[in-house]
Amino acid sequence: MEGSESEALFDAHNLNPQRFVNEVLNSVDDMLDGAFHFLHQQAFEITSAAESGADRSQDLAKGVTYLRHLIQAVVDKRMDSWEKYCLRHCFTVPEGILLPEDQNSSRKDLLLQEGLSDVELDSQLDSLRNKLAAVGKESADLLREKHSLEKESTLSHIYDSFVTETLQLLEHNSVHQMLREIGETASKLRSKMGEVKIKRSEHVKRARFGRVIISGKKHVPHDPGLSASIEDIQEAANILKTA
Q1: Among candidates 158, 229, 235, which has minimal Cα distance to 191?
Q2: Contact 196/226 with Cβ under 8 angstroms?
Q3: Which residues does UniProt call coiled coil (predicted)?
Q4: What confidence category does residue 202 fall into, taking pLDDT thresholds of 50, 70 and 90?
Q5: 203 to each of 165, 206, 230, how far by Cα in Å?
Q6: Which of 50, 73, 81, 185 is deepest in the core (most CB within 10 A)?
Q7: What is the pLDDT of residue 26?
Q8: Contacts of 37 (CB under 8 A, 6+ apart)
């Protein structure tokens, strides 16, 4: 695009590239002026304290001036190149850009485009909100399911522990009860055997006493001791069966 068209476009938007470049160049010149002015003052103060202050002051002033011209030439050359680059590349309007016929219409078009972009952004934001809400709901459901599974697992462990303790208690009570019943049966048997022993002892005494009385007789009465012993044995067997 030609320079006149570019300038017209920049003017339409209240922009002036050349003014920007000039302000930068003036700022660089001001910085150089301040730097060399400070250098000249420092050199004058140093030479004033010496004996031959006037001669040395003039020599230093010439040296500072020479350095300034040397550095200024290099800076000017570099800044010229920078100015050309900015004007040719940074502030050149690409081809195809048309000047707006009416500034107000261009603003309306810009606002319309911004409005459309805002609508699209709002739509995307709504979509993201819906997705985030769905993810949050799913996360809450998973969290509730996790708590439910943890609760079921805890109840299952408690149930298993209760069943185990109950079985151990039943086994312990069963063995204890069996031992107690064996002890009771043994006690009954000991008591019954004691009774049988007493009965046989009495029977033996009666038999001896009877033989003494009927020692001169031929007939000896029937001994009922055998039937009594069988009854006692049968009673002992019944005790064992019911134990």
Answers
A1: 235
A2: no
A3: 125-152
A4: confident
A5: 56, 5, 14
A6: 185
A7: 92
A8: none
- Assigned token pair, 37: 């002015």
d(CA 94, CA 97): 6
Q: Dump pLDDT digits (tens) for 159-193.
A: 777 677 766 766 666 666 776 777 777 777 777 77
Tokens of 143: 């969290």
What is the rounded CA–CA span in Å between residue 86 and residue 27?
A: 16
Helical spans, DSSP H, in 49-102: 53-85
Residues 41-90 pLDDT 10s:
887 777 776 555 566 777 777 888 888 899 989 999 999 999 998 888 88
One-letter amino acid at 100 equals P
- Give pairs for 78-86: CB < 8 Å, separation 24+: 79/24, 79/25, 79/28, 83/21, 83/25, 86/17, 86/21
pLDDT surpassing 50 at residue 1? no
**pTM more than 0.85:** no
Residue 52: DSSP 8-state: T
Q: Tokens 């009385």 identify what position?
A: 213
Nearest residue to 236 via CA among 187, 198, 201: 187
**Cα 51 to Cα 55: distance, rounded to the nearest angstrom:** 10
